[in-house]
Amino acid sequence: MLATTIKGLVKRLVKPKPGQVERIAKNEHGIDRSRVSRHAIKVCESLQQKGFDAYIVGGAVRDLIIGLEPKDFDVATNATPEQIKPLFRRARIIGRRFQLVHVVFGQEIIETSTFRAPASDGHMTDDHGRILRDNVFGSQQQDAERRDFTINALYYDPVTETVIDFHRGVRDLRKGLVRMIGDPALRYREDPIRMLRAVRFAVKLKGKIDTASQAPIAELADLLSNVPASRVFDEMLKLLTCGQAMACVKQLRTYGLHSGLLPLLDVILEDPEGQAFIELALERTDKRIRIGKSVSPSFLFAALLWPQVRSQWERLCADGELRIPALIQAADQVLDAQTEKLAINRRFSSDMRDIWFMQPRFERRVPRAIYRLFEQPRFRAAVDFMQMRAACNEVDSVLAQWWMDLADGNDETRSEMIAALANEPKEAGSANKRRRRPRRRKPADGAAAPRGDV
Ligand code: ATP
Ligand code: MG
């Protein structure tokens, strides 16, 4: 009894107050140093040898503590970009507003930034409180304060193997709590993207957004329409490729973060016809990410927008438009509507079109057309896309498998497959079934010669 009371008392005395820095030792945070990028360690060591403070920071520390593989490693230091750059053979200063240094080691880039002061110190904001400029160097404590969530404000010193925690982030991490640093409403106003990040991290931790950080979201969700479309696109892409896209999308809906602001999500969640296709696309994406395969953004967005493109396409065909021009028109209409809110990069949208436009061409298996399709750079993606359509009974699955086998085969099997087609009955959409254009009538008086005779 006495022992438990003393234990409780000691715990209370030792328990740091919010805002008080905690130094967490290896046996408590459990980071396995062998999983830390040796290049990030090298950057910290080099800076420390010159007398600077330097830590691995942000998402990498969070992921290492919960045993996930970090995507990349960032370093934060009290050295300025001019002091950092000369310490490394390949380093370049980037950014205009807030400069930071990219230290390059072969394929790996360690983003190294100087501690930054929080937004309260005379930063420019727009009418809604969104920060427009944020470029003041600060102390480590200030740097922690300007980060979004407590779980993202952890500093790992790879030399002493200590984690520095200003906001009790390790505790939140263990509880699966996404907690905003500072006043949540103010911080969402400063940068509404943080609402989307909160959802993504809650799903990632299989946890939740803490009550106070959750509360203002419903009211502030509209502020997302105020954020530059390219940032929304980048965050959406992160969300859709985090390996748990479906869970994220469902959570966004719970928080009212989907409607109106992100037309893409309106489509995903509110169009029952397209739902099956989109769920399949997200499931496949999640699976690929989990087994470490890459996902192409063009493929993903082509899939997400397909139900809309398809229904528009069908409508235009029903109105008498020819299939291919109708598809081109449908794609334009859907992409125009989306890019207003969600800046789909031009490179992605041109790949998306390629994937879509190959779909009707798969219906026509004549040797020359097959070889022409095969040479298209997005052929493989378009064939994969066709598999999803087949899984949703949109196209014949035997035909979809034929194209898959063709894509997977070698030159010899390919020519055999194409040669074998000659023995198959002609299929819908093949050359002899194409709709003929009506013949042009000759002018009655014969005055105008046919083209080519001129
Ligand atoms: P992941 O890379 O898995 O998406 P991350 O936490 O590393 O997660 P990044 O966008 O790479 O996210 O940002 C690195 C760090 O920068 C974050 O951990 C956080 O400390 C800080 N940060 C990023 N975006 C914001 C933001 N909008 N507001 C405040 N701090 C941010
Ligand atoms: Mg990161």
Report the mean per-residue pLDDT as an integer: 85
Helix proportion of residues, in percent?
40-55%
Overall shape: it is elongated
How much of the polypeptide forms β-strand, as a percent range? 5-15%
Helical run tally: 22
| Strand segment count | 10
Structural class: alpha+beta
Ligand list: adenosine-5'-triphosphate, magnesium ion
CA gyration radius, whole angstroms: 28 Å
Q: Give the spatial strand order of the biggest sheet.
A: 1-8-7-2-3-6-5-4
Question: What labels describe this entry?
Answer:
22 helices, eight-stranded mixed beta sheet, alpha+beta, two-stranded parallel ribbon, 10 strands, binds magnesium ion, binds adenosine-5'-triphosphate, 454 residues, disordered C terminus
Q: Mind explaining what this structure looks like?
A:
The chain is 50% helix and 9% strand. It has helices at 2-14, 26-29, 38-49, 59-65, 81-84, 140-146, 169-175, 184-190, 193-204, 211-214, 217-220, 229-240, 245-254, 263-270, 272-290, 297-318, 323-339, 346-361, 367-374, 379-391, 397-408, 411-420; strands spanning 22-24, 54-57, 74-77, 91-94, 100-105, 108-114, 154-157, 162-165, 177-178, 208-209. Strands 1-8-7-2-3-6-5-4 form an eight-stranded mixed β-sheet. Strands 9-10 form a two-stranded parallel sheet. Residues 429-454 have low confidence and may be disordered. The structure holds adenosine-5'-triphosphate and magnesium ion. The site of magnesium ion (MG) has 4 residues, from loops.
Give the helix/strand layout.
Layout: H1 2-14, E1 22-24, H2 26-29, H3 38-49, E2 54-57, H4 59-65, E3 74-77, H5 81-84, E4 91-94, E5 100-105, E6 108-114, H6 140-146, E7 154-157, E8 162-165, H7 169-175, E9 177-178, H8 184-190, H9 193-204, E10 208-209, H10 211-214, H11 217-220, H12 229-240, H13 245-254, H14 263-270, H15 272-290, H16 297-318, H17 323-339, H18 346-361, H19 367-374, H20 379-391, H21 397-408, H22 411-420
Helix pairs in contact: 9-12, 9-13, 14-15, 15-16, 16-17, 16-18, 17-18, 18-20, 20-21
Bound molecules: adenosine-5'-triphosphate and magnesium ion.
Residues 58-59, 71, 74, 147-148, 152-153, 191, 193-194, 238 line the site of adenosine-5'-triphosphate.
